[in-house]
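Order emerges. For instance:

***
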Amino acid sequence: MSRTPLRAALQQLATDGLVSVRPQVGTLVAKLDVGQLNEAVFIRSALECAVVEKLASNTTDLAELGRTLTLQAAAAEIDDYATFFQHDEAFHAKLSELAGTPTVWKLVQSVKGHVDRQRYSMMAGIPMRSLKAYDEHLLISDRIRNGDVAGASKAMADHVASVFDLEQ
């Protein structure tokens, strides 16, 4: 790999506060910035709650989520958090797409580096944590299907905020 794309990637990670660059020393993983984590969760919650509210108010057909949920279930049951993480991303992206707001997911991605870091750490450190996230996805889906706007929003807010849960 050429140094140019690596340098650009490290600069982006530094801009996002995920690494700290120390000239002539090296690049180190930055300590978790709780303030940035709080802000990212706030932004993500606001955007994703709006998405599920829109879906629930239109009683959207969620059949397209079936394959993603099936793949999540398989990964969660064997506690394969790396695979689950990929399907989790697909679930949230598909919700935005179904709501007709795919740019919302792009906006969420632009701020969720600290959230992802915490989520991945939790999934790796808490046995069967991905199964809890899968159950939360089922609840969100059910509330959307039932047209429960407030319930879908609360379920999504709780799901996004679960990154703060240290034990499950």
Observations:
- The two ends are 40 Å apart (CA to CA).
- The mean pLDDT is 86.
- Helices lie at 3-15, 34-57, 66-77, 81-98, 102-111, 113-125, 129-145, 149-161.
- The domain at 1-31 is CATH 1.10.10.10 (Arc Repressor Mutant, subunit A).
